């Protein structure tokens, strides 16, 4: 653990009170100059630290950051030893974890970044991932006996876990736009991307990378003009210790669904939050755009739609995209 990380952990444990540079230096057996340099580095990375003469340093109330220790504190016992890595910036957490998966990383390995320079969503569309305002995480899974067409279950389970976690920390109602977008009101606050590697011999899933990006706070400069009409955030301003609570809650809830899917009716919880069932939407598939009526979501997680001529069809993930008309 680097000096700055040790200082951040110390200040986190004493949040709400001040700790002098001399005291920090004594606890960590370093010089006061080293303390000052580490604090300066933390501030440059966006950590809000107050410094008051004759009192010392303290994290401000508006500080919210990710830490391995903070996440583990809220995790259920089965996940306490999960391998967790946090990067200040990554091109794409999914891409990086995909490489680690190929090198033999264990299931439940978790990779997070404070910022993504090349975050992506479905169909390689960019996912806006600015510094400090979101939670960008990727989880490695090695499911047993999952065929290619069953991989969508992971996305469905994750959507339920994310919705329930957001509702837990915010008290706000969430809704799902099939198959992988989470909304609060008419604004998208989360996107989910599940990618995987399959065996050519038997068509089974060797491993999956579950990527989740949550817009937790509104960027100071606002969302880019291109996505401003649809992008939203869970909270308008920073709240202390929210990131670690959100990450741990998502993991805990997803663990329940993923490890025992037969005993937990995740599909009913997903359907209950769907805002497209019973509505007419614009369906784009195979280069063709059609207005359809959404009948429901079947037990294979497919969207059941009806065309104007009465023809019904079950659409699976990867074949279509939806454009909701509010």
Structure, described:
- The protein is 29% helix and 25% strand.
- With 326 residues, the chain is an alpha+beta fold.
- The chain folds into three domains: 3-59, Winged helix-like DNA-binding domain superfamily/Winged helix DNA-binding domain (Arc Repressor Mutant, subunit A, Orthogonal Bundle), CATH 1.10.10; 68-273, 2-Layer Sandwich (BirA Bifunctional Protein, domain 2), CATH 3.30.930; 280-323, SH3 type barrels (Roll).
- The strands form three sheets. Strands 3-4-5-9-8-7-6 form a seven-stranded mixed sheet, with helices on both faces. Strands 13-12-11-10-14 form a five-stranded antiparallel sheet, with no helix packed on it. The chain has a two-stranded antiparallel ribbon with strand order 1-2.
- A hairpin with a 2-residue loop joins β7 and β8.
- α6 (152-170) crosses α7 (242-259).
- The longest helix has 19 residues, at 152-170.
- The protein is elongated and about 75 Å long.
- The termini are far apart.
- The model has no long low-confidence stretch (mean pLDDT 88).
């Amino acid at each position: 653990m680097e000096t700055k990380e040790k200082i951040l952990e110390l200040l986190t444990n004493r949040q709400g009170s001040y700790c002098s540079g001399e005291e920090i230096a004594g606890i960590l057996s370093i010089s006061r100059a080293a303390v000052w340099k580490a604090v300066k580095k933390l501030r440059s990375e966006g950590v809000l630290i107050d410094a008051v003469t004759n009192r010392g340093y303290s994290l401000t109330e508006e500080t919210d950051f990710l830490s391995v220790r903070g996440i583990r504190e809220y995790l259920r016992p089965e996940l306490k030893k999960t391998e967790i890595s946090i990067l200040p910036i990554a091109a794409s957490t999914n891409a990086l974890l995909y490489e680690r998966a190929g090198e033999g990383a264990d299931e439940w390995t978790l990779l997070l970044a404070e910022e993504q320079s090349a975050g992506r969503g479905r169909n390689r569309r960019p996912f806006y991932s600015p510094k400090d305002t979101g939670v960008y995480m990727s989880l490695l899974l090695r499911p047993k006996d999952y065929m290619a067409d069953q991989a969508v279950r992971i996305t469905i389970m994750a959507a339920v876990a994310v919705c329930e976690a957001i509702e837990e920390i915010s008290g706000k109602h969430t809704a799902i736009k099939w198959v992988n977008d989470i909304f609060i009101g008419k604004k998208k606050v989360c996107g989910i991307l599940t990618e995987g590697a399959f065996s050519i011999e038997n068509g089974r899933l060797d491993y999956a990378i579950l990527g989740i990006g949550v817009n937790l706070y509104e960027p100071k400069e606002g969302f880019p003009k291109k996505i401003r009409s649809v992008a939203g955030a869970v909270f308008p301003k920073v709240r202390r210790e929210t990131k670690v609570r959100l990450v741990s809650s998502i993991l805990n809830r997803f663990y329940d669904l993923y490890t025992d899917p037969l005993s937990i009716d995740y599909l009913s919880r997903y359907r209950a939050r769907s805002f497209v069932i019973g509505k007419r939407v614009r369906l784009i598939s195979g280069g063709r755009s059609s207005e359809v009526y959404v009948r429901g979501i079947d037990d294979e997680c497919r969207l059941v739609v009806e065309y104007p001529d009465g023809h019904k069809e079950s659409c699976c993930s990867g074949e279509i995209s939806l454009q909701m008309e509010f």
